[in-house]
């Protein structure tokens, strides 16, 4: 029986798409890719989409996916439930008095467990790293301002992560262990940066609720920014305040050996898979320098 032209053309398009992904499958299989997401997209429907992509890339493509998560609005809500008020932020860092630590510890633990469970439900083993017994990040007190129990990352326990079974996805919260064995709150972008550097990751992917770094002209985004470009963008105040720590953290990551940083819209369906496997990619990629 002869195959209709329409079906033949559809098949050809599928083969073309598959062939386009093969170089990137070969490039990233067996390498680390760190995915960071937090408060702005911590919603069930979005999170289900994210974890299913992470499980797919780990299980079927063989990419060593690592998740780093923040807490954001969920934590603000839980702090209010406890009878306290969320503290102010300075340069993207949440001021953290000691009275907030039990709430943060509980909330990050709950979020961490939820993400692990969802990855497992998507068909891939996962393990959470949070709290005094599980944190892989060590810190010192951040003295850049009066921030309370906010930490600066000093080291990442790479050995603990590398000892995981090869099919397992680590899920890391943005709290670390500091002086005296105390828990410290950490900016999640900084945790993701430190983990990416420690693991010599091929990519750090920062998931947000916007398509990338906006140019300031209508709905356009920068498809590529170099480290030099980032300096200009920040100086010209093109980007919104909350994006500046992400850009500065990205520069630090690139200067310490990670090949690329991508800022993409995590709420878009299959955006992680599309960025890693497609020829064109999505969002804004940040690189050391332009060719």
Describe it for me?
With 291 residues, this protein is α/β, with parallel strands linked by helices. It has one domain: 3-Layer(aba) Sandwich (Carbamate kinase). It is 40% helix and 21% strand. The strands form 4 sheets. The chain has an 8-stranded mixed beta sheet with strand order 5-8-2-1-11-13-14-12, with helices on both faces. It has a two-stranded antiparallel ribbon with strand order 3-4. Strands 6-7 form a two-stranded antiparallel ribbon. The longest helix has 24 residues, at 5-28. It is globular and about 65 Å long. The mean pLDDT is 88.
For the record, the CATH architecture stands as 3-Layer(aba) Sandwich
Helix content: 25-40%
Content-based structural category = alpha/beta
**Overall number of domains:** 1
**Uncertain spans, ≥5 residues at pLDDT below 50?**
none
CATH topology: Carbamate kinase
User: How large is the count of helical segments?
Assistant: 9
Strand arrangement within the widest β-sheet reads 5-8-2-1-11-13-14-12
Distance between the termini: 52 Å
Sheet-strand content, in percent, reads 15-25%
Task: Return the CATH class.
Answer: Alpha Beta
What are the secondary-structure elements, in order, as H or E? HEHEHEEHEEEHEEEHEEHHEHE
CATH superfamily: Acetylglutamate kinase-like
Q: Please tell me how large the radius of gyration is.
A: 20 Å
**Shape type:** globular
Instruction: Compute the average pLDDT.
Output: 88
Give a short account of the largest sheet: 8 strands, mixed
């Amino acid at each position: 029986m002869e195959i209709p032209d329409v079906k033949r053309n559809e098949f050809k398009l599928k083969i073309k798409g598959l062939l386009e992904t093969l170089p990137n499958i070969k490039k990233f299989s067996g390498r680390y890719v760190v995915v960071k997401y937090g408060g702005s997209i911590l919603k069930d429907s979005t999170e289900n989409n994210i974890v299913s992509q992470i499980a797919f890339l780990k299980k079927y493509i063989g990419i060593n996916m690592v998740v780093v998560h923040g807490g954001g609005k969920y934590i603000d809500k839980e702090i209010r439930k406890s009878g306290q008020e969320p503290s102010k932020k300075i340069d993207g860092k949440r001021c953290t008095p000691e009275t907030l630590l039990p709430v943060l510890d509980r909330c990050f633990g709950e979020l961490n467990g939820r993400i692990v469970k969802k990855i497992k439900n998507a068909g891939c083993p996962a393990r959470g790293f949070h709290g005094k017994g599980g944190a892989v990040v060590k810190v010192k007190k951040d003295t850049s301002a009066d921030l309370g129990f906010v930490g600066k990352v000093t080291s990442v326990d790479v050995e603990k992560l590398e000892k995981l079974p090869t099919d397992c996805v680590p899920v890391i919260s943005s709290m670390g262990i500091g002086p005296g064995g105390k828990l410290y709150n950490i900016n999640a972008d900084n945790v993701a940066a430190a983990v990416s550097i420690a693991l010599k990751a091929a990519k750090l992917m920062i998931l947000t609720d916007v398509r990338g770094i906006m140019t300031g002209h209508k709905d356009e985004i920068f498809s590529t920014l170099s480290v030099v470009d980032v300096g200009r963008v920040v100086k010209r105040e093109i980007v919104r305040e909350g994006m500046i720590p992400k850009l500065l953290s990205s520069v630090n990551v690139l200067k310490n050996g990670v090949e690329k940083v991508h800022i993409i819209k995590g709420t878009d369906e299959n955006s992680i898979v599309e960025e890693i496997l497609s020829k064109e990619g999505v969002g804004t990629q940040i690189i050391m320098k332009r060719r």
